[in-house]
Description:
By secondary structure, the protein is of the alpha/beta class.
Amino acid sequence: MIELVRTENLHKRFGELEVLKGIDLSVSEGETVVLLGSSGSGKSTLLRCINFMETPSSGRVFIRGEAVGTERAGKLTYNQADLCQLRTKVGMVFQHFNLFPHMTVLQNVMEGQLTVLKRSRKEAGEKSLAQLDRVGLADKAGEYPSRLSGGQKQRVAIARALAMDPRVMLFDEVTSALDPELVGEVLKTMRQLALEGMTMICVTHELGFAYHVANRVLFLNDGAIHEEGNPQQVLRNPQTQRMREFLEGHSLFKLPD
Ligand SMILES: Nc1ncnc2c1ncn2[C@@H]1O[C@H](COP(=O)(O)OP(=O)(O)O)[C@@H](O)[C@H]1O
Ligand SMILES: [Mg+2]
């Protein structure tokens, strides 16, 4: 099994606040991992450290076995060009889609390919259409984002990330800002990606998604991975009091019989 993402003793501090207290994470190719945790437990920070939108305070990140950063005299340094390269391999989708309003859907999906990957317009256009088709939105290529629903915008944001040919996709509460009736179409797209073998780390409060789609669930608490396992085991039969309390707070979710 190929290990795509690995973190070793990852720490992140913001001043006095230590948000991540030594995270050891390993995600294999094709695996879907769901990261659960209360608000403020550091889920976003962990994802952001994996694609280096935040620089870890200490510890290492490896993408496909390659260590990110260079160690000299015990100090880690990060080269901007390397981080830019890394972010093409580690796609990320956020709660707020951040599409450019003055560009069509197609132009939005093409943009990163043109500016970061230096693809030709022809190649970027073809790639974009293929990815829009993958999320079921090829017919919206010529529309402006303002004409799309929130769910459609989020699927465009997913297509935009996929068009960079990432090795792994990070999803940070991508359905949290959507009207309830639009959540399903985005989760369906993510489920489809998982079935196609995409490697994914998803922060979500959608326990149904975790239950049915994840290969593994991690519960982040007090800066550490507090409990982990297959979703059936963790969600049905939590081993720790904290995890039980967290699940009770999500009592709207009913486990299948
Ligand atoms: N850039 C930052 N500067 C200072 N504190 C931050 C910053 N980003 C996050 N934090 C703090 O780190 C903690 C974890 O935040 P976050 O990773 O966003 O949690 P989650 O995504 O689980 O809700 C919170 O207490 C938050 O206020
Ligand atoms: Mg968050």
